[in-house]
Amino acid sequence: MSATELPARPGEFQPLHIGPIEVWPPVVLAPMAGVTNAPFRTLCRRYGAGLYVNQMITARALVEGHRKSLELAAFAPDETPRSIQLYGTEPYSIAEATRMLIDTQAVDHIDMNFGCPMKKVTRHGGGAALPWKRDHYRTIVRAAVNAAGDVPVTVKFRVGIDNSAITFLDAGRIAEDEGCKAVALHARTANQLYSGNADWRRIAELKEAVRSIPVLGNGDIWEADDALTMMRTTGADGVVIGRGCLGRPWLFADLADTFNGRPLAPRPNLGTVLDGMVEHAELLCQWMGEMRGIRDFRKHTGWYLKGFSTGNEIRRQLNRVGSLDEMRTLIAGLDRSVAFPDGGMRMVRGHHGSPKEVHLPDGWLDTRDGEVAMPAGAEALVSGG
Ligand SMILES: Cc1cc2nc3c(=O)[nH]c(=O)nc-3n(C[C@H](O)[C@H](O)[C@H](O)COP(=O)(O)O)c2cc1C
Fold first, then answer.
1. How far away, in angstroms, is 159 Cα from ligand 1 center?
2. How many Å apart are CA 316 and CA 82, to the nearest integer?
3. I want to staple 39 with a disulfide (CB 3.0 to 4.6 A). Which of 17, 97, 283, 357 is the partner?
4. Which residues have C-beta atoms less than 6 Å from ligand 1?
5. What are the distances in angstroms from CA 197 to CA 44, 74, 188, 236, 370?
6. Structure pTM?
Protein backbone atom coordinates (compact mmCIF):
# COMPACT_ATOMS: atom_id res chain seq x y z
CA MET A 1 0.00 0.00 0.00
CA SER A 2 1.30 3.46 -0.83
CA ALA A 3 2.01 5.73 2.12
CA THR A 4 -0.55 8.23 0.92
CA GLU A 5 -3.39 5.92 -0.05
CA LEU A 6 -6.66 7.13 1.42
CA PRO A 7 -8.53 6.55 3.61
CA ALA A 8 -7.30 4.42 6.53
CA ARG A 9 -8.13 0.71 6.39
CA PRO A 10 -10.37 -0.57 9.21
CA GLY A 11 -8.18 -1.39 12.21
CA GLU A 12 -5.07 0.10 10.63
CA PHE A 13 -4.68 2.69 13.40
CA GLN A 14 -5.46 2.39 17.08
CA PRO A 15 -6.88 4.93 19.51
CA LEU A 16 -4.24 6.93 21.31
CA HIS A 17 -4.00 6.43 25.07
CA ILE A 18 -2.63 9.23 27.22
CA GLY A 19 -2.88 7.64 30.64
CA PRO A 20 -6.61 7.06 31.16
CA ILE A 21 -7.62 9.33 28.28
CA GLU A 22 -8.55 7.52 25.07
CA VAL A 23 -8.29 9.65 21.97
CA TRP A 24 -9.85 8.64 18.67
CA PRO A 25 -8.91 9.55 16.06
CA PRO A 26 -5.33 9.82 17.35
CA VAL A 27 -5.28 13.56 16.73
CA VAL A 28 -4.20 16.34 19.08
CA LEU A 29 -4.69 20.07 18.58
CA ALA A 30 -1.28 21.66 19.21
CA PRO A 31 -1.13 24.27 21.92
CA MET A 32 -0.85 27.63 20.15
CA ALA A 33 -0.48 30.80 22.18
CA GLY A 34 -3.12 33.37 21.34
CA VAL A 35 -5.11 30.83 19.33
CA THR A 36 -6.18 27.67 21.15
CA ASN A 37 -8.46 29.36 23.67
CA ALA A 38 -11.82 27.88 24.68
CA PRO A 39 -13.77 29.30 21.70
CA PHE A 40 -11.27 27.91 19.20
CA ARG A 41 -11.25 24.54 20.91
CA THR A 42 -15.05 24.48 20.93
CA LEU A 43 -15.11 25.25 17.23
CA CYS A 44 -12.55 22.58 16.34
CA ARG A 45 -14.35 20.03 18.48
CA ARG A 46 -17.61 20.73 16.62
CA TYR A 47 -15.93 19.64 13.41
CA GLY A 48 -14.09 16.60 14.62
CA ALA A 49 -12.75 14.66 17.52
CA GLY A 50 -9.44 14.34 19.28
CA LEU A 51 -7.66 16.00 22.17
CA TYR A 52 -7.74 19.79 22.20
CA VAL A 53 -4.97 21.40 24.24
CA ASN A 54 -5.37 24.82 25.83
CA GLN A 55 -2.78 27.56 25.40
CA MET A 56 0.51 27.59 27.22
CA ILE A 57 0.63 29.23 30.60
CA THR A 58 3.71 30.13 32.62
CA ALA A 59 3.99 28.18 35.86
CA ARG A 60 5.30 31.00 37.99
CA ALA A 61 2.79 33.53 36.71
CA LEU A 62 0.00 31.13 37.57
CA VAL A 63 1.39 30.47 41.03
CA GLU A 64 1.71 34.22 41.64
CA GLY A 65 -1.92 34.65 40.62
CA HIS A 66 -1.45 36.80 37.50
CA ARG A 67 -4.91 37.62 36.20
CA LYS A 68 -3.98 36.94 32.57
CA SER A 69 -2.65 33.45 33.34
CA LEU A 70 -5.75 32.59 35.32
CA GLU A 71 -7.86 33.74 32.39
CA LEU A 72 -5.81 31.71 29.91
CA ALA A 73 -6.19 28.64 32.08
CA ALA A 74 -9.98 28.72 31.76
CA PHE A 75 -12.07 26.00 30.13
CA ALA A 76 -15.56 25.96 28.69
CA PRO A 77 -17.96 24.60 31.33
CA ASP A 78 -18.76 21.44 29.35
CA GLU A 79 -15.21 20.85 28.13
CA THR A 80 -13.82 17.38 28.59
CA PRO A 81 -11.12 16.28 28.77
CA ARG A 82 -9.46 19.45 30.07
CA SER A 83 -5.98 19.66 28.66
CA ILE A 84 -3.45 22.49 29.07
CA GLN A 85 0.21 23.26 28.45
CA LEU A 86 2.55 24.49 31.15
CA TYR A 87 5.85 26.30 30.73
CA GLY A 88 8.41 26.52 33.47
CA THR A 89 12.09 26.25 34.23
CA GLU A 90 12.26 25.30 37.86
CA PRO A 91 10.70 22.46 39.82
CA TYR A 92 9.00 24.37 42.65
CA SER A 93 6.74 26.52 40.48
CA ILE A 94 6.08 23.66 38.06
CA ALA A 95 4.90 21.46 40.91
CA GLU A 96 2.80 24.23 42.47
CA ALA A 97 1.25 25.17 39.14
CA THR A 98 0.49 21.54 38.39
CA ARG A 99 -1.32 21.16 41.71
CA MET A 100 -3.23 24.41 41.15
CA LEU A 101 -4.39 23.36 37.71
CA ILE A 102 -5.65 20.08 39.05
CA ASP A 103 -7.28 21.53 42.17
CA THR A 104 -8.84 24.67 40.74
CA GLN A 105 -9.37 23.85 37.06
CA ALA A 106 -9.88 20.09 37.36
CA VAL A 107 -7.52 19.51 34.44
CA ASP A 108 -7.32 15.99 33.03
CA HIS A 109 -4.01 16.36 31.19
CA ILE A 110 -0.91 18.55 31.45
CA ASP A 111 1.53 18.98 28.60
CA MET A 112 4.90 20.63 29.22
CA ASN A 113 6.55 22.99 26.76
CA PHE A 114 10.19 22.25 25.99
CA GLY A 115 10.06 23.44 22.40
CA CYS A 116 9.63 27.20 22.50
CA PRO A 117 12.32 28.76 20.24
CA MET A 118 11.66 32.41 21.10
CA LYS A 119 14.65 34.52 22.03
CA LYS A 120 13.12 35.81 25.27
CA VAL A 121 12.68 32.19 26.38
CA THR A 122 15.84 30.41 25.17
CA ARG A 123 18.21 33.19 26.23
CA HIS A 124 17.23 32.39 29.81
CA GLY A 125 17.62 28.65 29.24
CA GLY A 126 13.89 27.92 28.90
CA GLY A 127 11.83 26.20 26.18
CA ALA A 128 13.90 24.42 23.55
CA ALA A 129 17.14 25.29 25.37
CA LEU A 130 16.22 23.38 28.51
CA PRO A 131 16.48 19.70 27.47
CA TRP A 132 20.17 20.32 26.76
CA LYS A 133 20.65 20.33 30.54
CA ARG A 134 19.58 16.74 30.97
CA ASP A 135 19.60 16.60 34.77
CA HIS A 136 17.69 19.80 35.18
CA TYR A 137 15.16 18.74 32.56
CA ARG A 138 14.70 15.48 34.44
CA THR A 139 14.15 17.32 37.73
CA ILE A 140 11.45 19.50 36.21
CA VAL A 141 9.65 16.64 34.51
CA ARG A 142 9.80 14.63 37.74
CA ALA A 143 8.36 17.54 39.73
CA ALA A 144 5.39 17.80 37.38
CA VAL A 145 4.74 14.06 37.26
CA ASN A 146 4.91 13.73 41.06
CA ALA A 147 2.65 16.71 41.62
CA ALA A 148 0.16 15.48 39.02
CA GLY A 149 -0.56 12.15 40.72
CA ASP A 150 -3.05 10.30 38.53
CA VAL A 151 -3.33 13.12 35.99
CA PRO A 152 -1.21 12.27 32.93
CA VAL A 153 1.72 14.52 32.06
CA THR A 154 3.21 14.68 28.57
CA VAL A 155 6.10 16.65 27.11
CA LYS A 156 6.45 18.41 23.79
CA PHE A 157 9.87 19.26 22.43
CA ARG A 158 11.86 19.94 19.27
CA VAL A 159 14.70 17.99 17.68
CA GLY A 160 17.24 20.12 19.48
CA ILE A 161 18.72 23.58 19.67
CA ASP A 162 20.41 23.24 16.28
CA ASN A 163 22.02 20.44 14.31
CA SER A 164 25.06 20.43 16.60
CA ALA A 165 22.99 20.31 19.81
CA ILE A 166 20.43 17.56 19.31
CA THR A 167 18.32 16.77 22.37
CA PHE A 168 15.18 14.90 21.36
CA LEU A 169 16.24 11.30 22.02
CA ASP A 170 17.40 12.07 25.55
CA ALA A 171 14.35 14.24 26.13
CA GLY A 172 12.08 11.38 25.08
CA ARG A 173 13.87 8.69 27.11
CA ILE A 174 14.00 10.83 30.24
CA ALA A 175 10.30 11.68 29.95
CA GLU A 176 9.52 7.98 29.60
CA ASP A 177 11.72 7.13 32.63
CA GLU A 178 10.05 9.78 34.74
CA GLY A 179 6.53 8.55 34.12
CA CYS A 180 5.25 10.81 31.37
CA LYS A 181 2.35 9.29 29.47
CA ALA A 182 3.34 10.44 25.96
CA VAL A 183 5.90 12.56 24.15
CA ALA A 184 5.38 14.83 21.16
CA LEU A 185 8.09 15.91 18.74
CA HIS A 186 7.94 19.00 16.55
CA ALA A 187 10.43 17.69 14.04
CA ARG A 188 12.45 20.87 13.64
CA THR A 189 15.32 22.34 15.64
CA ALA A 190 14.82 25.63 17.47
CA ASN A 191 17.26 27.15 15.00
CA GLN A 192 14.92 26.27 12.16
CA LEU A 193 12.00 28.04 13.83
CA TYR A 194 9.23 27.22 11.33
CA SER A 195 11.36 27.21 8.15
CA GLY A 196 11.95 24.40 5.69
CA ASN A 197 10.21 21.12 6.25
CA ALA A 198 9.78 19.19 9.47
CA ASP A 199 12.10 16.17 9.32
CA TRP A 200 9.70 13.30 9.97
CA ARG A 201 12.61 10.80 10.04
CA ARG A 202 13.32 12.19 13.51
CA ILE A 203 9.87 11.04 14.60
CA ALA A 204 10.69 7.52 13.46
CA GLU A 205 13.97 7.69 15.41
CA LEU A 206 12.13 8.79 18.53
CA LYS A 207 9.64 5.99 18.09
CA GLU A 208 12.59 3.55 18.07
CA ALA A 209 14.00 5.08 21.25
CA VAL A 210 10.81 5.45 23.26
CA ARG A 211 9.04 2.12 23.45
CA SER A 212 6.63 2.13 26.37
CA ILE A 213 4.58 5.31 25.84
CA PRO A 214 2.97 6.85 22.76
CA VAL A 215 5.08 9.03 20.48
CA LEU A 216 3.24 11.84 18.71
CA GLY A 217 4.51 13.45 15.53
CA ASN A 218 4.19 17.14 14.81
CA GLY A 219 5.09 19.42 11.94
CA ASP A 220 3.57 20.21 8.56
CA ILE A 221 0.32 18.30 8.64
CA TRP A 222 -1.75 20.47 6.35
CA GLU A 223 -4.23 17.90 5.06
CA ALA A 224 -5.71 14.71 6.43
CA ASP A 225 -3.61 12.46 4.21
CA ASP A 226 -0.45 14.05 5.66
CA ALA A 227 -1.48 12.60 9.02
CA LEU A 228 -1.81 9.11 7.53
CA THR A 229 1.49 9.47 5.73
CA MET A 230 3.23 10.61 8.89
CA MET A 231 1.87 7.72 10.90
CA ARG A 232 2.54 5.15 8.19
CA THR A 233 6.10 6.29 7.54
CA THR A 234 7.23 6.97 11.11
CA GLY A 235 5.20 4.56 13.21
CA ALA A 236 3.97 7.49 15.32
CA ASP A 237 1.03 6.73 17.58
CA GLY A 238 -0.73 10.01 16.87
CA VAL A 239 -0.39 13.41 15.26
CA VAL A 240 -0.33 16.95 16.60
CA ILE A 241 -1.97 19.57 14.41
CA GLY A 242 -0.83 23.20 14.57
CA ARG A 243 -0.98 25.62 11.67
CA GLY A 244 -2.97 23.29 9.43
CA CYS A 245 -6.18 24.17 11.29
CA LEU A 246 -5.64 27.94 11.31
CA GLY A 247 -8.53 29.27 9.24
CA ARG A 248 -9.32 25.64 8.34
CA PRO A 249 -10.90 24.18 11.50
CA TRP A 250 -12.75 21.65 9.32
CA LEU A 251 -9.37 19.89 8.99
CA PHE A 252 -10.54 18.05 12.13
CA ALA A 253 -13.58 16.79 10.23
CA ASP A 254 -11.31 15.63 7.41
CA LEU A 255 -9.10 13.85 9.94
CA ALA A 256 -12.07 12.14 11.61
CA ASP A 257 -13.35 11.03 8.19
CA THR A 258 -9.97 9.80 7.04
CA PHE A 259 -9.20 7.83 10.17
CA ASN A 260 -12.70 6.32 10.10
CA GLY A 261 -12.31 5.23 6.48
CA ARG A 262 -14.82 7.71 5.06
CA PRO A 263 -14.33 9.93 2.02
CA LEU A 264 -13.69 13.61 2.73
CA ALA A 265 -16.45 16.22 2.45
CA PRO A 266 -16.10 18.60 -0.49
CA ARG A 267 -14.04 21.73 0.18
CA PRO A 268 -16.19 24.63 1.45
CA ASN A 269 -16.93 27.55 -0.85
CA LEU A 270 -16.39 31.11 0.30
CA GLY A 271 -19.93 31.33 1.71
CA THR A 272 -19.37 28.36 4.00
CA VAL A 273 -16.00 29.73 5.09
CA LEU A 274 -17.61 33.10 5.89
CA ASP A 275 -20.31 31.38 7.97
CA GLY A 276 -17.56 29.60 9.89
CA MET A 277 -15.77 32.92 10.45
CA VAL A 278 -18.91 34.45 11.92
CA GLU A 279 -19.45 31.43 14.16
CA HIS A 280 -15.85 31.67 15.40
CA ALA A 281 -16.13 35.41 16.02
CA GLU A 282 -19.42 34.92 17.89
CA LEU A 283 -17.85 32.29 20.14
CA LEU A 284 -14.95 34.63 20.93
CA CYS A 285 -17.34 37.49 21.69
CA GLN A 286 -19.44 35.31 24.00
CA TRP A 287 -16.27 34.19 25.78
CA MET A 288 -14.45 37.50 26.28
CA GLY A 289 -17.02 40.19 25.48
CA GLU A 290 -17.66 41.70 22.08
CA MET A 291 -14.95 44.36 22.13
CA ARG A 292 -12.11 42.00 23.03
CA GLY A 293 -13.57 39.07 21.11
CA ILE A 294 -13.79 40.87 17.81
CA ARG A 295 -10.27 42.22 18.21
CA ASP A 296 -9.01 38.76 19.02
CA PHE A 297 -10.72 37.45 15.92
CA ARG A 298 -8.91 39.88 13.58
CA LYS A 299 -5.78 37.74 13.36
CA HIS A 300 -7.87 34.81 12.10
CA THR A 301 -9.28 36.75 9.13
CA GLY A 302 -6.21 36.40 6.95
CA TRP A 303 -5.97 32.69 7.74
CA TYR A 304 -9.60 32.03 6.76
CA LEU A 305 -9.38 34.09 3.58
CA LYS A 306 -5.93 32.85 2.53
CA GLY A 307 -6.01 32.02 -1.17
CA PHE A 308 -9.44 33.60 -1.85
CA SER A 309 -9.24 36.62 -4.12
CA THR A 310 -11.45 38.95 -2.13
CA GLY A 311 -9.40 42.09 -2.78
CA ASN A 312 -7.21 43.95 -0.29
CA GLU A 313 -9.73 46.56 0.77
CA ILE A 314 -12.13 44.13 2.44
CA ARG A 315 -9.22 42.44 4.25
CA ARG A 316 -7.99 45.80 5.44
CA GLN A 317 -11.44 46.62 6.78
CA LEU A 318 -11.85 43.23 8.41
CA ASN A 319 -8.48 43.71 10.10
CA ARG A 320 -9.90 46.81 11.78
CA VAL A 321 -13.43 45.53 12.39
CA GLY A 322 -14.94 46.73 15.68
CA SER A 323 -18.17 44.75 16.13
CA LEU A 324 -19.93 41.59 15.02
CA ASP A 325 -22.54 43.60 13.11
CA GLU A 326 -19.83 45.47 11.24
CA MET A 327 -18.20 42.16 10.35
CA ARG A 328 -21.49 40.72 9.08
CA THR A 329 -22.12 43.83 6.97
CA LEU A 330 -18.62 43.77 5.49
CA ILE A 331 -18.74 40.15 4.42
CA ALA A 332 -22.33 40.39 3.11
CA GLY A 333 -20.91 42.04 -0.02
CA LEU A 334 -18.71 39.07 -0.95
CA ASP A 335 -19.65 36.51 -3.60
CA ARG A 336 -20.47 33.41 -1.56
CA SER A 337 -20.28 31.05 -4.52
CA VAL A 338 -16.50 31.42 -5.02
CA ALA A 339 -14.83 27.99 -4.88
CA PHE A 340 -12.15 27.07 -2.35
CA PRO A 341 -8.73 27.89 -3.88
CA ASP A 342 -6.69 25.07 -5.39
CA GLY A 343 -3.97 24.11 -2.94
CA GLY A 344 -5.63 26.30 -0.29
CA MET A 345 -5.15 23.79 2.50
CA ARG A 346 -1.38 23.79 2.01
CA MET A 347 -0.88 27.55 1.92
CA VAL A 348 1.27 28.31 4.97
CA ARG A 349 -0.53 30.19 7.71
CA GLY A 350 0.72 31.32 11.09
CA HIS A 351 4.45 31.20 11.67
CA HIS A 352 6.93 30.73 8.82
CA GLY A 353 10.23 32.39 7.90
CA SER A 354 13.91 31.56 7.89
CA PRO A 355 16.28 29.98 10.42
CA LYS A 356 17.61 32.22 13.19
CA GLU A 357 20.44 31.93 15.64
CA VAL A 358 19.20 30.56 18.98
CA HIS A 359 20.07 32.85 21.86
CA LEU A 360 21.32 30.96 24.91
CA PRO A 361 22.72 31.91 28.31
CA ASP A 362 26.53 32.32 28.33
CA GLY A 363 28.33 28.98 28.36
CA TRP A 364 25.04 27.03 28.14
CA LEU A 365 26.37 24.43 25.72
CA ASP A 366 29.60 23.81 27.67
CA THR A 367 28.11 21.10 29.90
CA ARG A 368 25.04 18.87 29.63
CA ASP A 369 24.93 17.29 33.06
CA GLY A 370 24.81 18.46 36.66
CA GLU A 371 22.50 20.87 38.42
CA VAL A 372 21.96 24.24 36.81
CA ALA A 373 21.32 27.59 38.41
CA MET A 374 18.69 28.97 36.07
CA PRO A 375 19.47 32.52 34.93
CA ALA A 376 17.31 35.30 36.36
CA GLY A 377 14.32 35.97 34.14
CA ALA A 378 13.89 32.36 33.08
CA GLU A 379 10.45 32.21 34.68
CA ALA A 380 9.23 35.58 33.49
CA LEU A 381 5.78 35.60 31.95
CA VAL A 382 6.10 34.19 28.45
CA SER A 383 3.69 33.11 25.79
CA GLY A 384 4.11 31.29 22.52
CA GLY A 385 5.98 28.33 21.23
C1 LIG B 1 0.64 30.95 16.59
C2 LIG B 1 1.41 29.80 17.16
C3 LIG B 1 1.57 29.70 18.54
C4 LIG B 1 2.25 28.61 19.08
N5 LIG B 1 2.34 28.50 20.44
C6 LIG B 1 2.88 27.36 20.98
C7 LIG B 1 2.86 27.14 22.38
O8 LIG B 1 2.39 27.96 23.17
N9 LIG B 1 3.40 25.96 22.84
C10 LIG B 1 3.95 25.03 22.00
O11 LIG B 1 4.43 23.98 22.45
N12 LIG B 1 3.99 25.23 20.67
C13 LIG B 1 3.45 26.36 20.15
N14 LIG B 1 3.44 26.52 18.80
C15 LIG B 1 4.02 25.47 17.96
C16 LIG B 1 2.94 24.45 17.56
O17 LIG B 1 2.39 23.84 18.70
C18 LIG B 1 3.53 23.38 16.62
O19 LIG B 1 4.51 22.67 17.32
C20 LIG B 1 4.15 23.98 15.37
O21 LIG B 1 3.31 24.98 14.82
C22 LIG B 1 4.47 22.91 14.33
O23 LIG B 1 3.32 22.22 13.94
P24 LIG B 1 2.52 22.58 12.59
O25 LIG B 1 3.48 22.44 11.45
O26 LIG B 1 1.40 21.60 12.56
O27 LIG B 1 2.10 24.02 12.72
C28 LIG B 1 2.80 27.62 18.23
C29 LIG B 1 2.65 27.74 16.85
C30 LIG B 1 1.96 28.80 16.31
C31 LIG B 1 1.79 28.88 14.82
1. 14
2. 36
3. 283
4. 30-35, 55-56, 85, 113, 115, 156, 186, 218-221, 241-244, 350-351, 384-385
5. 25, 33, 8, 18, 34
6. 0.96
Domains annotated for the chain, with CATH where assigned, are 16-265 (3.20.20.70), 270-340 (1.10.1200)
From atom 18 of ligand 1, which residue's Cα is the shortest distance away? Answer: 242
pLDDT by residue, tens only, the chain of 385 residues: 444 566 899 999 999 999 999 999 999 999 999 999 999 999 999 999 899 999 999 999 999 999 999 999 999 999 999 999 999 999 999 999 999 999 999 999 999 999 999 999 999 999 999 999 999 999 999 999 999 999 999 999 999 999 999 999 999 999 999 999 999 999 999 999 999 999 999 999 999 999 999 999 999 999 999 999 999 999 999 999 999 999 999 999 999 999 999 999 999 999 999 999 999 999 999 999 999 999 999 999 999 999 999 989 999 999 999 999 999 999 999 999 999 999 999 999 998 889 999 999 999 999 999 878 887 777 765 554 4
The amino acid at 202: R
Cβ burial of 309 (10 Å; 0-12, 13-18, 19+) is exposed
d(CA 269, ligand 1 centre) in Å: 27
Active site residue 116: yes
| Active-site residue (options: 44, 116, 180, 285) | 116
Indicate which atom in ligand 1 lies nearest the CA of residue 241: 26
- Alpha carbons 207 and 223: distance in angstroms, whole number: 22
d(CA 372, CA 361): 11
